[in-house]
Design brief:
Blueprint lengths: L1 H30 L4 E3 L3 E6 L7 E8 L7 E6 L4 E4 L10 E8 L5 E11 L6 E9 L7
Parallel strand pairs: 2-8
Antiparallel strand pairs: 1-3, 3-6, 4-7, 5-6, 7-8
């Protein structure tokens, strides 16, 4: 009986240490990393009348405690082109990057943009959508 009690206490202590260690690890990991926070994850252009209307700046902020660096931005097709700088964004600092959608494809569109960075929440998925009329002339 005493052996069972000792074994039970041992198991409880091991579980307690394992759970609290994991909790402490993730809290420390979160507090010393960068986190990218976007003002919006989705943008709808609605109906695009002029080519310059198919440009958008995605604004973001480093809400973490370490510098933020965007390594790559990938899109689902060649009709969506991102432009970003590679400088490091300090904690609490804001920046933006440009996305251009080429309007040669007519009709409704939904495109995904994946942002790869050193942030804890990387990759971040963004979406743009809209409609290009069939009688629309591109420049």
């Amino acid at each position: 009986m005493a052996k069972q009690l000792k074994f039970s206490i041992y198991i409880v202590i091991v579980l307690f240490v394992a759970i609290t260690s994991r909790y402490i690890y993730f809290n420390i990991k979160e507090s010393i990393n960068s986190v990218i926070t976007f003002e919006t994850l989705n943008h709808n252009f609605d109906t695009i009348i002029k080519p310059e209307q198919a440009e958008l700046y995605f604004r973001y902020k480093n809400t973490g405690n370490k510098f933020l660096e965007i390594y790559d931005i990938q899109t689902t097709c060649g009709c969506t082109i991102p432009f970003w700088n590679t400088r490091r964004i300090q904690p609490k600092e804001e920046d933006s990057f440009l996305v251009k959608y080429h309007t040669q494809n007519k009709g409704n569109f939904v495109k995904e943009i994946m942002v790869y960075s050193n942030a804890l929440n990387s990759p971040t998925r963004l979406k743009i959508s809209g409609y290009v009329p069939y009688g629309y002339k591109t420049e």
